[in-house]
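Predict both folds.
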Amino acid sequence: MMNQQLVIAGKSYHSRLLVGTGKYKDFSETRAAIDASGAQIITVAIRRTNIGQNAGEPSLLEYLPPEEFTYLPNTAGCYSADDAVRTLRLARELLDGHKLVKLEVLGDPKTLYPNVIETIAAAKVLVKDGFDVMVYTSDDPIIAKQLEDIGCCAVMPLASLIGSGMGILNPWNLQIIIENAKIPVLVDAGVGCAGDAAIAMELGCDGVLMNTAIAAARDPVLMASAMKKAIEAGRESYLAGRMPRKLYSASPSSPTSGLITAA
């Protein structure tokens, strides 16, 4: 089990950390952070990042070639199912038929909370259209199961609001989603530090997707390295199985037999 890899849409990955490519000072810093993170899957906001749609401008493809990384085009900035579907169809054209995508349909520009009604509508269209859909959603176990039943290849419930850095606010719902899912479950949004990432993995998540936690750190490259280690440590801790919680230990941790005592 220690060598078990993350499998998404039939493809295996040794890294369980997925990293966004936005909010860095330039593409060079983006590349350095991605390298430090060890991530193999990188997300790209089609509406905000040039991957060829803006001729004459620097393209992310020059710094992070698709032959080195698995691109995960996302629909950041979309507030309707129609916009999300249109954006991902454009991404498929720009990336020569690429099928693996991240769907997110937002409810409002202030909280960036997911609009699950529009998300479900878009997921149905995209799955029918042949996309492999990884879907950002709320931490509602019922919605997560519906998205799985539609045919999404991974569900990605939020830990807390996008860009908030508040960490995992409802671990109980995440555990319910994980226990009921037959597809990968990845925490998406809200991670602020390496400890948050480790906790997500200790809960049994298959991976963690993040952007702001790395890009907005004082030292993004160093934070990316920390996140890599946290994901690995959290996964090992989950597989090892923690000791039971108890108020106090009824027996000492060291043996009492065979000790030298006074005559």
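Second protein follows, with its predicted structure tokens after the sequence.
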Amino acid sequence: MFQKLLYYFKKVKRARRIKKLKKKIPPYLLKDFEVELNYKLWTTKGARFAASRRNQILHKLSGQCIGYLSAYLIIVGLVKVYGLNFWLLKLTDQQVNFTSMAFSVLILLFSQLENSENYILKSERYHNCALDIAELYNKLRFAKTYQNNNPNKETILLEISNDYDRILKKYENHIEIDYSRFQLQKPDYFGLDFFDRVFFKIEFYCRVQLRYHILIYGPLIIFITTNLYLLIF
């Protein structure tokens, strides 16, 4: 359901932007190869830095999530040991045992899945990729500024383009949300209005942070909601 809703808003946003930019030719569509190469290096570099940051956030949230779930597991065990209640909620021994086992299985499964993602390694690789592309970008900017009359300029541009292709083959590609995060850094250049910026931020939260916040705060929200229900009714 969420994916369908997200796809619908993407279509609306894309149609609105196409209408707004219909009379504007983006730099990467110009026939000048040098301008196109400059644009590709600049945007890819920014997107890869954004991808590195995204994986850093995932790594941090992953650790926090495992820590919170482990704390919930310990608290449930302590409640059983000391014969306490969850405020107004009274659980039987069987219910406490089931809750403990459920948290144990959830932590085990979640830890395995998160460790297989290796977010910190991906972050480093994206960062290294961005640095490699940044070197080519600086080389291109130098050639544009100081070597306009150089008869070998075409060879230099071709060499930079080939190096760029080789770098891309070495690293995993970033995802669409990374490019959107980079666009948020230059909203005026990319023609982003208020709704575009809000949409990108919501999309980033839903695709990157939401599931961790559900696991971190979900049990606490359920606990408070249940007790408030018992208190009122």
